[in-house]
Amino acid sequence: MSLSSGFIRIRRSARAFARAPGLALVLLLTIALGVGSNAAVYGFLEGLINPGLPVRSGEKLVSVFETDRFRNAGALSPEAFGQLEKSHEVFAWVGAVRVMPRTAIVAGHAKILSVAAVTPQLGEALSLPVAKGAVISSNLWKREFGGSASAVGSRLQVDSVDFEVGGVGPERLDGLYSDQSVDVWVAAKPEDLEGAGRARRDLWVVARLRERVSADEAQAEVRSGGAGLSDVSVVPFTGLAPSMARGLSQVGLFLTFSAAAVFLVACINVASFLLGRALRRSHETSLRVALGATRGELLRDLLADSVVIAVGGWALGLLLGILTARALRAFLFEGDAARLTFAPHLLPICGASLLCVVVTVLCGMLPVVGTVTDRPWMVLQRETGSPSRGVLRLRSLLVVGQIAVCCMLVVCTAVLLTGLHAALETGAGHRLGNPVLLTVEAQPIGGPEIDPGYFDAVEQKVSTIAGVRPLGWTERLPGNGPAWQSFRIQQASAQYREVAMDIAWLTPESLERLEKLPVAGRMFGIGDRTGRVAVVNETAASEIFGAKTAGMSIRDAGDHPLEIIGVVREAGNEGTSGQADDVSRATIYYGYVNGAEAPSTIRDAMFRVPVAEPMAGIELNANVVSANYFSVLDMPVVEGRRFGAERVADEGRVAVINQEAADLYFNGKALGSAVIDDSGVRREIVGVVKSQVFGTFEQHAEPTIYFPIWQNPPARMTLMLKTAKLNREVAAELRQRVALVPGGSTAPSGVTTFDAQLARSGLAGLRIATLIGGASAAMALLLGLIGTLNVQSDAERQRQRERALRIALGAQRWRIVLLVMRTAGGLALVGTAIGVVLSLAVMRFVIAEAATVAPPSMEVWLIAPMLPVIAVVMMSLVPAGRASMIAPAVIMRDL
Predict the structure, then answer these.
(1) What is the pLDDT of residues 715-735, one digit of tens each?
(2) Are 769 and 251 in contact (CB under 8 A)?
């Protein structure tokens, strides 16, 4: 019986709302906006936090990070990884990935690719069949092979090692983490995971938890059990880069607050609309009570009204959330839109929707305060049907609450906008006037080497465009994440010892006794200085120089520097007379000469060798730049000099580091020291420059090393340009001029601006948060204005007789307008004051935790709170105008 009566009430409520389509439509849209904002925000957060990596089902994978001196989570050192592998109590297995740029030949083209060496168990968990051969990424498969199935089974080379393509990586697996794109995955060998000391941190570790072991328990066990692992953190593996995860934790709470605020304003609106509806039916309701209707029946009728509106608004809200998720991408950069994945998580969305329905039903029951609590004869005695003082106070509180919530959202969004603007207004970018970034790609010349003359030709060709002035070249675009590279350090103040080695020259005959590829380092190149570089045999490497020989600098008998660029291996002991024991003697080989011109071997020549081996295991952010890069970005020289625009005769490879690298690894004494990379290439440090921080996302500058563009440049470089403005015509002209330069890639050149690049890269999270927060603030403000307009319209409708009497007694109509606007302005000022106080609390506990947002300026506190006040006062002009146009005769006659 009760069920059937409930359906009857619901059907009656639906018909009643159908007879008032305007009210029904406004109520449905109000609830839909509240539910839709929750669905959209939670969907975006879920898509960002859990991007849907192709991890095998049932795998309890965790990321293991080690914090650096800035307390930022990052990769582990080989030593820490070795200790972590012994944690059998909490981990079923521990895997690792090392990502490094490598020279590769793919589809007949030589390129510099990002190659990841991954342990087999981790590769299997990520659906990478590395046991069958190299696995190419989906992007590389589409770019180089056109998405053809024939790519599987083809061959490619990585650092002269031949691989068979065993498969294509999953579509959504761009890299182990979101900020590390990987082109090729290969199975890791033991030597791929080796390294000296804890200073080298380039192993990204992922482990599988044992059954009934949580991430927190594993972290506690690792920290307590392993020496030197006290700074290790264990978190569930999501594929998010640590920096992005930290940014999401900073803005996620704000986005949740934005959705909750819109939801609260929507609920207040529903209560206001239903309360106004009940007040307009107060005579009817009181008459029903006087005729014997119980208060329970009235409550059930109100409940039916609330259920009809709540369920309809809930369904419309879910649809609106999905449509919003699709429409929001149009307002983002292409890279941001790809990162902004909408992944509806049913549990939180349904939970929020159910909460919305419950709160809407409860808000819909609020009219009982204004009807049922009044005694029916008191209501019937009111000639005008005006509400009681309690109801008036309740409606005023609803309006004040709406304005306070809107004020909080507007202030918080203004703070985010201020932070985004401050992040874009870097010192260099502001001084340069938002320069244009032109990215070009050169084709290798016969191998992986790139001709630096191509970039000179591009710069000359671009400079012929009117109003365009080239500024400088850089490999790493501003705002991008660091490109870490491992180095060894040889200090300038090293002590030397005397050693003896045989001196020989590489001739066609001697080359036949050596293996084609060096054991370590490299062989002689075109750009090497004659008589300033050499290679040694394995005997010299093992007896004199140690494990890391390539890249070391020694002194000859004339005290001239000599760089060891590689280690060679003799093919055997057979040979000409007098060469049988050369294999066992420490020998140093000078450059190529014809056999007829080769001097005879010099026995036991004396050299001076550093006593200590180079310090291994440091990491620097590497960048290739032009000589004028430092002056363009306002990076003055602190010590030494900058490198020149061209190579200096008889000068070796050089580099410049920033102040952070000098202080961290060289104790402030970097000049004359050298760094040696993993391939044995040595570069002498000739200068130290002051750092430049791009945007508020970078709270500190990373230790960075800069290489000159004329020294083994990469294939892809970016030229900064000064121009009055960037439009389609200028961008097209730049691409046309670049296409005329021979030696370039067939791919079109990239053209963007300095500010846009920052917004695409390091500021993407702040842009997304600002966009969603701004949309939420606008939505809440719109809902608040609609609710305020409804409350004021109902109030003026109920006070029509009073306004008519005032006009009949001679009150001027403009005073009626001022009276209505004064009432609205008073409520707006009270709500704004409460909103400002609450905003201070939100700033302290929510946004103040975000390192990306600077403290708001005084202008934010002065201007942002005034927006709701101005909007409410402007909206009050509608009911004020209606009140001033009242005809006293008509009102008195109708009453």
Answers:
(1) 889 998 888 777 888 888 888
(2) yes
